[in-house]
Amino acid sequence: MTTSTNWPNPERPGVPMFPEKNGKHVINVDPEGVGSELVYYWKAKHQVWVEYDHEGPDDALDGYDLIGWAYVGPVLTSAQISEMLAGKYSIAVIQTALSVWDALDECDRTDADDMILLEQNGLMHRGIVEDANDFEDLEIGEAVWHFNETGIALVSAIRNMGAAL
């Protein structure tokens, strides 16, 4: 395969994205011609390419077979796509939550004011905070915040991120 920059790691040409997992990948076998994208299978344990998923390392394509090929990308399952979108969504929720909580920490507010601010910033709609009657108390510093299970998990994730920095 080529050493062009289309490989996930240009220092490891011929190695696909997610090399630690078996999987289908799209390869352009004629990138300098009309282009011909085909699916090949990566066998993680042996770090080899095969033509068919049922094949083993004895059926691996030789380096000569791979010359001139270009990597297009992995064939992702719907579950993998959902995981990636969930991760991206979680980061946005965490950023919003941090900015709201910083604003709440900077001034004295009643629980009702806190609820309005949380709702205005979309945290109630995202399942972080629901109804004042459904809250569980969670002490953070000197303040007692009221979150549902998702909110408690989010605060825990934020604490873990802070500890990792």
Question: What are the salient characteristics of this protein?
Answer:
alpha+beta, 35% helix, 2 domains, 6 strands, 4 helices, single chain, 165 residues, elongated
Question: Can you describe this structure in just a few lines?
Answer:
The protein is of the alpha+beta class and 165 residues long. It contains 4 helices and 6 strands; from the N terminus they run E-E-E-H-E-H-H-E-E-H.
Reconstruct the topology from this structure.
Blueprint lengths: L22 E6 L8 E7 L4 E3 L12 H4 L3 E5 L3 H28 L5 H10 L15 E5 L2 E5 L1 H16 L1
Antiparallel strand pairs: 1-2, 1-4, 2-3, 5-6
Describe this structure in words.
The chain is an alpha+beta fold and 165 residues long. It folds into two domains: 75 residues, no CATH class; 85 residues, no CATH class. Helix content is 35%, strand content 19%. It has a four-stranded antiparallel β-sheet, with no helix packed on it. Strands 5-6 form a two-stranded antiparallel sheet. About 14% of the residues have low confidence.
Number of domains: 2
| Structure classification | alpha+beta
What is the end-to-end distance? 39 Å
Number of strands: 6
The share of residues in extended strands comes to: 15-25%
Number of separate helices: 4
Round the Cα radius of gyration to an integer and report it: 24 Å
Strand order of the largest sheet: 3-2-1-4
Main sheet properties: 4 strands, antiparallel
